[in-house]
Amino acid sequence: MSRLEARLEPSRAMMLASPLIAAAAMLVSGSLLFSFLGQEPLHAFYVYFIKPASTAYGIGELLLKATPLILCGVGLALGFRASVWNIGADGQLTVGAIAGGCVALYFQDVEAVWLVPLMLLAGALGGMAWAAIPALLRTRFNTSEILVSLMLVYVAYLLLSYLVHGPLRDPDGFNFPQSRMFHDAALLPLLFEGLRTNAAFPLSLVLVGGAWFFCARTFAGYRMQVSGMAPAAAAYAGFSEKRNVWLGFMLSGGLAGLAGVGEVAGPIGQLQSSVSPGYGFAAIIVAYVGRLHPLGVVLAAVLMSLLYIGGESAQMELQLPSAITGLFQGLLLFYLLAADLFIHYRFKPAARVSALPAASGGNAA
Amino acid sequence: MSEAVSVVPSVRPEPRLQLLGISKAYPSVVANDRIDLTVMPGEIHAVLGENGAGKSTLMKIIYGVTRPDAGEMLWDGRQVRITSPSAARSLGIGMVFQHFSVFETLSVVENISLSLDERVPLAELAPRIRTVSEEYGLPLDPYRLVHSMSVGERQRVEIVRCLLQSPRLLIMDEPTSVLTPQAVQTLFASLRRLAAEGCSILYISHKLDEIQSLCDKATVLRAGRVSGIANPREETTGSLAELMIGKELPACRMTPRTPGEVRLALHGLSLPSDDPFGTDLHDISLTVHSGEIVGIAGVSGNGQQELLKALSGERRLDQAAAVQLCGVDAGRMDPAQRRQIGLGFVPEERLGRGAVPALSLADNALLTGHVQACGTGMVHRGLIQSGAVGSFARKVIEHFKVKCGGSSALASSLSGGNLQKFIVGRETLLAPKVMVVAQPTWGVDIGASMLIRQAIIDLRDQGVAVLVVSEELDELFMMCDHLAVIADGRLSRRVPVSETSVDRIGVWMSGNFTDRTDATPSTGVRHHVPA
């Protein structure tokens, strides 16, 4: 009988190989799926995965989409390492976008260099404020932060929807549920002429570097890691559980809020009734595919971004349904979780041994 | 019981159970290597060995929990394959585990009913429990809820549960670790009675004196192999120990010393447990002076966990003055603040509390070494100084002879004894003024145990106030200056070890602190736990 056997120590090789195996398995399942949909798999792959990244513009789009995923993903990874389960990054992103957007709209006549930094600051604070609710409820009343942060996502969506239908609606906008367009001083500067990639991308890379430093070198990062790995050891060492929860939520909420500003002050340029196609949720996958490591998160975010853009390209060129993006994301996470099993276990094939191997020989007592 | 085989000792009785060449390998270790074992009817057979010698694996194989890789098993002379515990039970094998599997919210009869292979109405089962339990001197009230029972009484539930199935072989896994010395005697009487009726008993233990007083025959295991078969009554403790560990039993050195000022004081500490089945602490007062070791004896589950958490700061108190460290009211402080004053603490659980399994030894050195007052310089302006962390970890590894792959080895890769040496070493080298140690040698092999005990004694000689909480009485008698007993959340007064005896501590462990025999302390018992 074949079976799984616990490994003595978690396999490091498998930990790194697991995302690659998952990506490969996703591609295999995808090709089956494409052929069932009547597409030529190789062509479909080309359209989905290669073509979007084959032009400078395409790469610009890839990085543009990857930016909010990096920001949210790195924040969530910091929290997840500490066993702080913030599932509501999309809500924090939305509130961050609202806060940054309000600053932009309030200073609509101001042409100053401090406006964008102020918007970013407001966005981060907005995201933190939204993340403070589950953190407070968890540390005060021991509520599940998973449920509270998730439910607050929908509250944030409704708040944004209310604002763009009401107080912040563009008076000259023919009653469309959207705000005034931000003026130039309230938009993130573009990196290259002709591409939509903006300053949020290099900012996200700087923050990734900061997150790596935080995890690897600071004592606060160590405390969070211990709290995540062994709560009893953290209590024994005197690391406060409350501080851990707060720090996890503030970091992930603040980074998600920044991502929100990056969207409304970047490609969107105004507040709309929706500012995120679920980046905050996709970032959960990003964090795990990136092995909760800041640098891994960058690679995973690019892959996830490719899934988004490839999905759009497949919709347009191959007339595939829009659900294809979510499907590929789901496949990736599914295979990743399956492959992760082999970090702690290994497969032991059926051992065909003779029934009683040499039991009678050499019994020295 | 009436079905039990009546044993007529014939000239050559058939062995009840015979193991031939049983082997079992796990990925890391060969737990059993060609083990032979023969148990006769009505025999009390000891399986003796250190932690990790392969005793538990062998018993699990007999009880059908684990399957052997190779070897044969004969039951009454017929070859059998025991594929599950229920198959074992149907043959007549019962097992009392070291850690009980009882539901605390249910009554005795409900618990036993759940474990029986056939369905018996409770009203029918209850009188049977009462009869069987009284017959063997293990009185039990079938309708009592298990959570209100002491650990010793819970063990009775497990034993009676096995007896109801009229076992022909009863396996007892380290049964006395949860009993007072007096309760051990009661248990032994019941076991002897059972054996006299023809039931074979496999008695697993590492306590030599118990085995000498109870068992007819002993199979000694060392590192997965049979290292000898002996009649324990004809052996000395020393010769048995040599079979068990391959060398003579080492000893610790401890010279008398005059204690100094009070370093740790508890004043009327009362604390409701935060676990619904935990033990509340009642009015605990104790002082520990510089340069002495005070031991707290007691059967597990009598408030030790709660007391230790109140001492370490993992559970904070309302009254600051209830715990005083070096003269400072520390009751409201968290563990890091208490360490700042000079507390060192070795908890009972090593993996997950005393050390983080998935982190390296260096990172585990940082776990408590970060405290500024220790002067290790591991953290500077919020940044980890990996040089200081690594050199401290290497110092611990070197001084305490921790067998490992260097300071970057994961804590989970160390054996229990080596990890305990690392944790004790870390806390020791952080130069505490007060040291609290819980179960210093639980699950640690004898060689490492002695090293750890000696390290604690050396701390005392350097003037540290040491408090040791242990369930091993012989250990406490070996290394303490004073003893106190915790029972049901209350602490006895402390007495010098030289003026007390195992018997008296045993009476105290059952919760009766009011003894009138103070005048006649028995002497010469320092190194012997009676059996």
From TrEMBL, chain A:
Keyword Cell membrane annotated: yes
GO CC annotations, alphabetized: plasma membrane
Source superkingdom: Bacteria
Membrane topology: Multi-pass membrane protein
InterPro entries: ABC_transp_permease (IPR001851)
Residue intervals passing through the bilayer: 12-37, 57-80, 87-107, 113-137, 146-164, 199-215, 245-266, 278-311, 323-343
Keywords: Cell membrane, Membrane, Transmembrane, Transmembrane helix
Compartments, record wording: Cell membrane
Record-linked Pfam families: BPD_transp_2
The keyword Transmembrane belongs to this UniProt entry's keyword annotation: yes
Signal sequence range: none
GO molecular function, one term: transmembrane transporter activity
Protein name: ABC transporter permease
Species of provenance: Zoogloea oleivorans
From TrEMBL, chain B:
UniProt entry tagged with the keyword ATP-binding: yes
Transmembrane spans: none
Sorted UniProt keywords: ATP-binding, Cell membrane, Membrane, Nucleotide-binding, Repeat, Sugar transport, Transport
Domain of life: Bacteria
UniProt domain ABC transporter: residue ranges: 17-248, 266-513
Keyword Metal-binding: no
GO molecular function, one term: ATP hydrolysis activity
Name of the protein described by the UniProt record: ABC transporter ATP-binding protein
Organism: Zoogloea oleivorans
